[in-house]
């Protein structure tokens, strides 16, 4: 999995490419850690190019949402593919983390 | 300033092995006493330690005993000549890498070739100048030291490898014994109770799996069943699973909750098994089958669910979107109910059975899994399970699954009402 970080207005976007799974957890964690330590207030995880996510991947998102909640920061998910959306729904992830279809929507909600 | 006073021997700088305090040891083999004495004196003047032998036989013994860094050897000797000494020494595995400088009076190409072929490393003409002797000895020692370092490194590597292999074997044995323990926790196949048949297939992704399931008799009228899936893999996942399995035992649940009510079981498990700091958690599906009526009450915590395959009509998933265990302290779990009739089948499965990628990355998926279950109505329960695993393997074109894969199948073999009354 490759993770690219970029700044958009007041948010930080992590563009994920590949599978978010048990074997990629270290890469994901360190990328998130870096963003968190930089004092990010709104993290947008772009899932557009994530084809598969396993239970560990779901756990990483749940953990992420918890730690950002503690810091009163926000996490948003962007454009999950249908399969990823399905397994996230089974685990109720949309009730923890907001999902948006465009970057603009994600940013707008934060600003509102 | 007198530098020489500290170093009276001109060659002492060359002669000391940086790795050890003593100067290099040279074995000088020469039958002619005058030549031997003068050569020995010259080598000592260079700063080396020298041991001497008068013939090949004596030299063999000395080489094995003293393990010199370099052997300076005369060609022509009584009893055993130089080349024969080389050959004999090279047959000794511990002497294979000894460095041999063969001295000869007449350095003809044919003779040099023969000497090299029979085991010498280099040549030294008896008429060589002091500088040449010194240079050849130095070059020989350089090679000899490199070879020894290599030998030491190789020996260290070999012993490290042996140590690692021993440790690995111990760990493998430990894992195997843990795996067979986990296997012993799984329910026996066959019939847990009259009127119900049970079969399952399980293939952990590693030796130890994090998926566990069970079917147990709660009381005369009830059968409890569940499947749990720990996120993550390996030993840590297996340990967490085993602890959740202990919690889910009928005796424990009845003591804590008074019944095996699925939503209550999930509520309690959600409280007791929070997500770890690493983000690891469980998904769990729990059911309770009331045997007299065939009513199945079930609830899921983030688990992809169970598949009900009725005797007639299409199969359907028994699940709803809920939080996995330990992710949300105030999560709510709700019971659903369905009636099982004779010849209905119920499958509890982990997502590892259908989240199987083909070589191009496409997943086998729930629908294909469901297709195999639907097509298996005419086959026995265990044949249907075997078909699921073999089709999933065919899809990924590999034997081992990336995640734990478990499917447990239950079949109502006769009218539950009849069997419980009669």
SSE series of chain B:
HEHEHEHEHEHEEEEHHHEEEEEEHHEH
Tell me the fraction of residues in β-strands of chain A, as a range.
25-35%
Q: For the residues shown, what is the average pLDDT of chain A?
A: 91
Q: Give the helix proportion of chain B (percent range).
A: 40-55%
- Largest sheet report of chain A: 5 strands, mixed
Tally of separate helices of chain B = 12
The CATH superfamily title of chain A? STAS domain
Taking the alpha carbons of the first and last residues of chain B, their distance comes to: 116 Å
Shape of chain A: globular
Would you identify the regions of chain A where 5 or more consecutive residues have pLDDT less than 50?
Answer: none
Derived from helix and strand composition plus strand pairing, the structural class of chain B reads: alpha+beta
Task: Find the structural class of chain A using helix and strand composition.
Answer: alpha/beta
Low-confidence stretches of chain B: 1-17, 417-422
CATH architecture of chain A: 2-Layer Sandwich
Provide keyphrases for this structure.
heterodimer, A: 112 residues, alpha/beta, Transcription Regulator spoIIAA, 5-stranded mixed β-sheet, 42% helix, B: 422 residues, alpha+beta, Rossmann fold, Phosphatase 2c, domain 1, 2 domains, 6-stranded antiparallel β-sheet, 5-stranded parallel β-sheet, 23% strand, rod-shaped, disordered N terminus, disordered C terminus
Structural topology:
The complex is a heterodimer of chains A (about 110) and B (about 425).
Chain A: E1 2-8, E2 11-20, H1 25-37, E3 42-53, H2 55-70, E4 74-78, H3 82-90, E5 98-100, H4 103-111
Parallel strand pairs in A: 2-3, 3-4, 4-5
Antiparallel strand pairs in A: 1-2
Chain B: H1 12-15, E1 25-29, H2 33-45, E2 49-53, H3 56-66, E3 70-74, H4 82-91, E4 99-104, H5 109-117, E5 122-125, H6 130-185, E6 190-193, E7 196-203, E8 211-219, E9 222-230, H7 234-247, H8 250-257, H9 262-272, E10 282-290, E11 295-301, E12 306-309, E13 316-318, E14 336-339, E15 345-349, H10 365-375, H11 381-396, E16 405-412, H12 416-421
Parallel strand pairs in B: 1-2, 1-3, 3-4, 4-5
Antiparallel strand pairs in B: 6-7, 7-16, 8-9, 9-10, 10-11, 11-14, 12-13, 12-15, 15-16
């Amino acid at each position: 999995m490759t993770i690219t970080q970029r700044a958009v207005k007041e948010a930080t976007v992590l563009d994920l490419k590949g599978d978010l799974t048990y074997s990629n957890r270290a890469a994901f964690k360190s990328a998130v850690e870096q963003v968190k330590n930089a004092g990010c207030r709104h993290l947008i995880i772009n899932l557009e190019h994530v084809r598969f996510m396993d239970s560990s991947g779901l756990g990483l998102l749940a953990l992420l949402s918890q730690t950002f909640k503690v810091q009163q920061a926000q996490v948003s998910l962007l454009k999950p593919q249908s399969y990823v959306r399905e397994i996230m729904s089974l685990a109720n992830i949309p009730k923890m983390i907001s999902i948006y279809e465009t970057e603009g929507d994600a940013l707008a909600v934060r600003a509102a | 300033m007198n530098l020489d006073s500290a170093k009276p021997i001109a060659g002492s700088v060359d002669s000391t092995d940086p790795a050890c305090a003593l100067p290099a040891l040279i074995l000088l083999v020469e039958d002619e006493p005058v030549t031997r004495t003068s050569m020995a004196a010259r080598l000592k003047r260079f700063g080396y330690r020298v041991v001497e032998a008068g013939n090949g036989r004596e030299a063999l013994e000395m080489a094995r005993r003293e393990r010199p860094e370099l052997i300076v050897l005369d060609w022509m000797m009584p009893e055993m000549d130089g080349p024969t000494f080389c050959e004999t020494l090279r047959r000794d595995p511990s002497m294979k890498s000894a460095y041999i400088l063969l001295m000869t009076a007449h350095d003809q190409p044919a003779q040099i070739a023969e000497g090299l072929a029979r085991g010498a490393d280099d040549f030294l003409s008896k008429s060589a100048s002091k500088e040449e002797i010194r240079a050849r000895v130095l070059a020989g020692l350089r090679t000899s030291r490199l070879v020894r370092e290599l030998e030491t490194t190789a020996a260290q590597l070999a012993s490290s490898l042996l140590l690692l292999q021993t440790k690995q074997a111990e760990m493998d044995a430990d894992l195997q014994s843990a795996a067979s323990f986990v296997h012993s926790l799984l329910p026996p196949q066959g019939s847990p109770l009259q009127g119900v048949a049970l079969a399952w297939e399980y293939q952990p992704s590693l030796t130890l799996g994090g998926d566990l399931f069970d079917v147990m008799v709660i009381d005369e009228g009830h059968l409890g069943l569940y499947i749990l899936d720990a996120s993550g893999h390996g030993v840590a996942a297996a340990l967490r699973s085993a602890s959740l399995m202990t919690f889910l035992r009928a005796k424990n649940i009845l003591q804590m909750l008074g019944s095996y009510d699925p939503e209550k079981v999930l509520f309690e498990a959600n409280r007791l098994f929070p997500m770890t700091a690493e983000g690891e958690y469980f998904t769990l599906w729990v059911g309770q089958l009331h045997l007299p009526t065939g009513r199945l009450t079930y609830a899921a915590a983030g688990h992809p669910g169970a598949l009900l395959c009725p005797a007639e009509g299409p199969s359907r998933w028994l699940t709803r979107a809920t939080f996995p265990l330990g992710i949300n302290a105030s999560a709510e779990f709700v019971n659903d109910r369905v009636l099982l009739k004779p010849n209905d089948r119920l499958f509890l499965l982990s997502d590892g059975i259908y989240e199987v990628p083909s070589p191009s990355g496409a997943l086998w998926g729930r629908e294909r899994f469901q297709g195999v279950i639907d097509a298996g109505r005419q086959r026995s329960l265990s044949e249907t399970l075997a078909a699921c695993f073999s089709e999933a393997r065919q899809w990924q074109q590999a034997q081992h699954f990336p995640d734990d894969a478990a499917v447990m199948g239950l079949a109502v073999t006769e009218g539950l009402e009849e069997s419980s009354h009669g």
